[in-house]
Specification:
Layout lengths: L2 H15 L13 H17 L1 H29 L1 H5 L5 E4 L5 E7 L4 H16 L3 E7 L5 H14 L7 H9 L7 H10 L4 H8 L2 H16 L7 E4 L2 E4 L4 H14 L5
Parallel strand pairs: 2-3
Antiparallel strand pairs: 1-3, 2-4, 4-5
Helix pairs in contact: 1-2, 1-3, 2-3, 6-8, 6-9, 6-10
GO molecular function: isomerase activity; oxidoreductase activity
InterPro entries: DSBA-like_thioredoxin_dom, ScsC_N, Thioredoxin-like_sf, Thioredoxin_domain
Pfam families: DSBA, ScsC_N
Length: 256
Protein backbone atom coordinates (compact mmCIF):
# COMPACT_ATOMS: atom_id res chain seq x y z
CA UNK A 1 0.00 0.00 0.00
CA UNK A 2 1.41 3.40 -0.94
CA UNK A 3 2.06 6.35 1.33
CA UNK A 4 -0.53 8.55 -0.38
CA UNK A 5 -3.32 6.14 0.52
CA UNK A 6 -2.11 5.91 4.09
CA UNK A 7 -2.00 9.69 4.38
CA UNK A 8 -5.52 9.81 3.03
CA UNK A 9 -6.57 7.40 5.74
CA UNK A 10 -4.87 9.52 8.39
CA UNK A 11 -6.53 12.61 6.97
CA UNK A 12 -9.91 10.96 7.29
CA UNK A 13 -9.19 10.24 10.94
CA UNK A 14 -8.09 13.78 11.51
CA UNK A 15 -11.12 15.10 9.68
CA UNK A 16 -13.33 13.04 11.95
CA UNK A 17 -11.64 14.56 14.97
CA UNK A 18 -12.42 18.04 13.65
CA UNK A 19 -15.89 17.22 12.37
CA UNK A 20 -17.63 19.39 14.90
CA UNK A 21 -15.79 22.44 13.66
CA UNK A 22 -15.47 21.68 9.95
CA UNK A 23 -17.99 21.05 7.13
CA UNK A 24 -18.89 17.49 6.11
CA UNK A 25 -17.98 17.94 2.43
CA UNK A 26 -14.47 18.70 1.23
CA UNK A 27 -15.69 21.27 -1.30
CA UNK A 28 -17.25 23.27 1.54
CA UNK A 29 -13.92 23.86 3.30
CA UNK A 30 -12.77 27.45 3.34
CA UNK A 31 -9.08 28.24 2.71
CA UNK A 32 -8.65 28.91 6.41
CA UNK A 33 -10.27 25.60 7.35
CA UNK A 34 -8.09 23.70 4.87
CA UNK A 35 -5.01 25.32 6.37
CA UNK A 36 -6.20 24.42 9.87
CA UNK A 37 -6.85 20.81 8.85
CA UNK A 38 -3.45 20.51 7.18
CA UNK A 39 -1.71 21.84 10.26
CA UNK A 40 -3.68 19.48 12.49
CA UNK A 41 -2.76 16.43 10.37
CA UNK A 42 0.89 17.43 10.30
CA UNK A 43 1.12 18.00 14.03
CA UNK A 44 -0.86 14.86 14.85
CA UNK A 45 1.31 12.59 12.71
CA UNK A 46 4.53 14.12 14.02
CA UNK A 47 3.33 13.59 17.58
CA UNK A 48 1.92 10.11 16.85
CA UNK A 49 4.00 8.52 14.05
CA UNK A 50 2.81 5.05 15.06
CA UNK A 51 -0.62 5.96 13.67
CA UNK A 52 0.78 6.18 10.15
CA UNK A 53 2.54 2.82 10.56
CA UNK A 54 -0.67 1.23 11.83
CA UNK A 55 -2.63 2.73 8.94
CA UNK A 56 -0.19 1.38 6.36
CA UNK A 57 -0.26 -2.08 7.96
CA UNK A 58 -4.07 -2.08 8.07
CA UNK A 59 -4.31 -1.04 4.43
CA UNK A 60 -1.73 -3.66 3.42
CA UNK A 61 -3.75 -6.36 5.17
CA UNK A 62 -6.95 -5.12 3.55
CA UNK A 63 -5.34 -5.25 0.09
CA UNK A 64 -3.96 -8.75 0.65
CA UNK A 65 -7.25 -10.05 2.02
CA UNK A 66 -9.13 -8.54 -0.93
CA UNK A 67 -6.69 -10.03 -3.45
CA UNK A 68 -6.92 -13.46 -1.80
CA UNK A 69 -10.73 -13.35 -1.81
CA UNK A 70 -10.69 -12.48 -5.51
CA UNK A 71 -8.22 -15.29 -6.22
CA UNK A 72 -10.46 -17.78 -4.44
CA UNK A 73 -13.38 -16.65 -6.59
CA UNK A 74 -11.26 -17.22 -9.69
CA UNK A 75 -10.28 -20.71 -8.50
CA UNK A 76 -13.95 -21.57 -7.91
CA UNK A 77 -14.92 -20.15 -11.30
CA UNK A 78 -12.15 -22.05 -13.11
CA UNK A 79 -12.71 -25.38 -11.35
CA UNK A 80 -13.31 -27.25 -14.61
CA UNK A 81 -10.12 -26.40 -16.50
CA UNK A 82 -8.14 -26.30 -13.26
CA UNK A 83 -9.07 -29.69 -11.81
CA UNK A 84 -10.64 -31.80 -14.57
CA UNK A 85 -9.29 -30.54 -17.90
CA UNK A 86 -8.93 -33.15 -20.63
CA UNK A 87 -5.52 -31.66 -21.43
CA UNK A 88 -3.89 -32.31 -18.06
CA UNK A 89 -1.97 -35.24 -16.62
CA UNK A 90 -3.57 -36.73 -13.51
CA UNK A 91 -1.49 -38.84 -11.15
CA UNK A 92 -2.56 -40.71 -8.03
CA UNK A 93 -6.19 -41.20 -7.07
CA UNK A 94 -8.43 -39.59 -9.74
CA UNK A 95 -11.26 -39.51 -7.19
CA UNK A 96 -9.15 -38.34 -4.26
CA UNK A 97 -10.63 -36.13 -1.55
CA UNK A 98 -7.77 -33.63 -1.98
CA UNK A 99 -6.36 -32.32 -5.25
CA UNK A 100 -2.89 -30.83 -5.62
CA UNK A 101 -2.41 -28.89 -8.86
CA UNK A 102 1.19 -28.06 -9.78
CA UNK A 103 2.18 -25.41 -12.32
CA UNK A 104 5.72 -26.38 -13.32
CA UNK A 105 8.40 -25.94 -15.97
CA UNK A 106 10.75 -28.73 -17.03
CA UNK A 107 13.69 -26.30 -16.77
CA UNK A 108 12.70 -25.02 -13.32
CA UNK A 109 15.41 -25.81 -10.75
CA UNK A 110 12.95 -25.50 -7.87
CA UNK A 111 10.45 -27.79 -9.61
CA UNK A 112 13.20 -30.39 -9.87
CA UNK A 113 13.86 -29.96 -6.17
CA UNK A 114 10.17 -30.39 -5.35
CA UNK A 115 9.80 -33.60 -7.40
CA UNK A 116 10.79 -35.98 -4.55
CA UNK A 117 8.27 -34.23 -2.29
CA UNK A 118 5.46 -34.73 -4.80
CA UNK A 119 6.48 -38.36 -5.34
CA UNK A 120 6.44 -39.00 -1.58
CA UNK A 121 3.03 -37.34 -1.22
CA UNK A 122 1.60 -39.60 -3.93
CA UNK A 123 3.13 -42.67 -2.28
CA UNK A 124 2.02 -41.76 1.25
CA UNK A 125 -1.50 -40.51 0.50
CA UNK A 126 -3.84 -42.89 -1.38
CA UNK A 127 -6.56 -40.21 -1.36
CA UNK A 128 -4.49 -37.57 -3.15
CA UNK A 129 -5.07 -36.54 -6.75
CA UNK A 130 -2.15 -34.69 -8.38
CA UNK A 131 -2.73 -32.59 -11.49
CA UNK A 132 0.28 -31.52 -13.56
CA UNK A 133 0.03 -28.22 -15.44
CA UNK A 134 2.98 -27.65 -17.77
CA UNK A 135 3.64 -23.90 -17.56
CA UNK A 136 6.67 -23.29 -19.83
CA UNK A 137 7.88 -19.82 -18.84
CA UNK A 138 11.65 -20.31 -18.94
CA UNK A 139 12.28 -20.02 -22.66
CA UNK A 140 11.84 -21.79 -26.00
CA UNK A 141 13.36 -25.02 -24.72
CA UNK A 142 10.67 -25.25 -22.07
CA UNK A 143 7.96 -24.70 -24.67
CA UNK A 144 9.33 -27.46 -26.89
CA UNK A 145 9.65 -29.85 -23.95
CA UNK A 146 6.06 -29.04 -22.98
CA UNK A 147 4.84 -29.88 -26.48
CA UNK A 148 6.61 -33.24 -26.41
CA UNK A 149 5.20 -33.96 -22.94
CA UNK A 150 1.67 -33.07 -24.03
CA UNK A 151 1.99 -35.37 -27.05
CA UNK A 152 3.43 -38.13 -24.87
CA UNK A 153 0.34 -38.02 -22.65
CA UNK A 154 -1.69 -39.31 -25.59
CA UNK A 155 0.30 -42.54 -25.38
CA UNK A 156 0.75 -42.61 -21.60
CA UNK A 157 -2.65 -42.21 -19.93
CA UNK A 158 -3.04 -41.77 -16.19
CA UNK A 159 -0.19 -42.86 -13.94
CA UNK A 160 1.80 -44.17 -16.92
CA UNK A 161 2.77 -40.58 -17.73
CA UNK A 162 4.50 -40.27 -14.35
CA UNK A 163 7.53 -42.22 -15.62
CA UNK A 164 8.02 -39.76 -18.49
CA UNK A 165 7.47 -36.76 -16.23
CA UNK A 166 9.89 -37.82 -13.52
CA UNK A 167 12.61 -38.82 -15.96
CA UNK A 168 12.47 -35.54 -17.89
CA UNK A 169 12.16 -33.35 -14.80
CA UNK A 170 15.12 -35.17 -13.23
CA UNK A 171 17.35 -34.51 -16.23
CA UNK A 172 20.47 -32.45 -15.61
CA UNK A 173 21.14 -29.35 -17.64
CA UNK A 174 18.81 -27.47 -19.97
CA UNK A 175 15.86 -29.42 -21.35
CA UNK A 176 14.34 -28.95 -24.81
CA UNK A 177 12.84 -30.96 -27.63
CA UNK A 178 15.83 -33.28 -28.06
CA UNK A 179 15.95 -34.25 -24.38
CA UNK A 180 12.19 -34.79 -24.20
CA UNK A 181 12.20 -36.88 -27.38
CA UNK A 182 15.03 -39.00 -25.99
CA UNK A 183 12.98 -39.78 -22.87
CA UNK A 184 9.98 -40.67 -25.04
CA UNK A 185 12.11 -42.99 -27.16
CA UNK A 186 13.57 -44.68 -24.07
CA UNK A 187 10.02 -45.40 -22.89
CA UNK A 188 9.14 -47.02 -26.21
CA UNK A 189 6.67 -44.45 -27.51
CA UNK A 190 5.57 -44.32 -31.14
CA UNK A 191 7.88 -41.56 -32.35
CA UNK A 192 6.03 -40.93 -35.63
CA UNK A 193 2.80 -40.37 -33.74
CA UNK A 194 4.63 -38.23 -31.18
CA UNK A 195 6.03 -35.93 -33.87
CA UNK A 196 2.61 -35.56 -35.44
CA UNK A 197 0.81 -34.92 -32.14
CA UNK A 198 3.30 -32.26 -31.03
CA UNK A 199 1.90 -29.83 -33.58
CA UNK A 200 -1.74 -30.76 -33.07
CA UNK A 201 -4.52 -28.36 -32.16
CA UNK A 202 -5.08 -30.26 -28.90
CA UNK A 203 -1.51 -29.70 -27.72
CA UNK A 204 -1.75 -26.00 -28.49
CA UNK A 205 -5.15 -25.76 -26.79
CA UNK A 206 -3.81 -27.42 -23.66
CA UNK A 207 -0.84 -25.07 -23.34
CA UNK A 208 -3.05 -22.07 -24.06
CA UNK A 209 -5.49 -23.18 -21.37
CA UNK A 210 -2.72 -23.41 -18.78
CA UNK A 211 -1.40 -19.96 -19.71
CA UNK A 212 -4.89 -18.49 -19.37
CA UNK A 213 -5.36 -20.15 -15.98
CA UNK A 214 -2.02 -18.84 -14.75
CA UNK A 215 -2.92 -15.36 -15.92
CA UNK A 216 -6.32 -15.49 -14.20
CA UNK A 217 -4.73 -16.71 -10.96
CA UNK A 218 -1.81 -14.25 -11.26
CA UNK A 219 0.71 -17.09 -11.27
CA UNK A 220 4.03 -15.90 -12.67
CA UNK A 221 6.54 -18.43 -11.38
CA UNK A 222 7.13 -22.12 -10.82
CA UNK A 223 6.46 -24.20 -8.94
CA UNK A 224 3.08 -22.89 -7.84
CA UNK A 225 0.52 -25.20 -6.30
CA UNK A 226 -3.26 -24.91 -6.03
CA UNK A 227 -4.74 -26.70 -3.04
CA UNK A 228 -8.44 -26.36 -2.41
CA UNK A 229 -9.05 -22.70 -3.17
CA UNK A 230 -5.60 -21.59 -2.03
CA UNK A 231 -2.27 -20.95 -3.74
CA UNK A 232 1.05 -22.20 -2.38
CA UNK A 233 4.00 -20.49 -4.05
CA UNK A 234 7.43 -22.08 -4.29
CA UNK A 235 9.08 -25.35 -3.30
CA UNK A 236 8.01 -25.26 0.35
CA UNK A 237 9.12 -28.80 1.19
CA UNK A 238 7.37 -32.07 1.97
CA UNK A 239 6.29 -31.28 5.52
CA UNK A 240 4.52 -28.03 4.62
CA UNK A 241 2.82 -29.58 1.61
CA UNK A 242 1.76 -32.63 3.65
CA UNK A 243 0.25 -30.44 6.38
CA UNK A 244 -1.64 -28.38 3.81
CA UNK A 245 -2.89 -31.47 1.97
CA UNK A 246 -4.09 -32.95 5.28
CA UNK A 247 -6.01 -29.73 5.96
CA UNK A 248 -7.63 -29.86 2.52
CA UNK A 249 -8.78 -33.41 3.27
CA UNK A 250 -10.43 -32.10 6.44
CA UNK A 251 -11.94 -28.77 5.43
CA UNK A 252 -11.09 -27.93 1.82
CA UNK A 253 -8.58 -25.22 2.81
CA UNK A 254 -4.84 -25.26 3.49
CA UNK A 255 -5.56 -24.13 7.06
CA UNK A 256 -8.68 -25.20 8.96
Amino acid sequence: MNLTAALGFAAALAGAALSTALPARADEFSPAQKQELGAFIHDYLVANPEVLKEAIEALDKHDKDTAEAERQKVVAGQAGPLFTSKYQATIGNPNGSATLVEFFDYNCHYCKGALPDIAKLIKDDPNLKVVLKDFPVLGPGSVEAAKVAAAARNQLPGDKFWAFHTKLLSARGPVGKAEAMAVAKDLGLDMDKLNKDMDSADVKAGLDETMQLADALQINGTPTFVLGQDLVVGAVGYDQLKNKVDSVHKCGRVAC
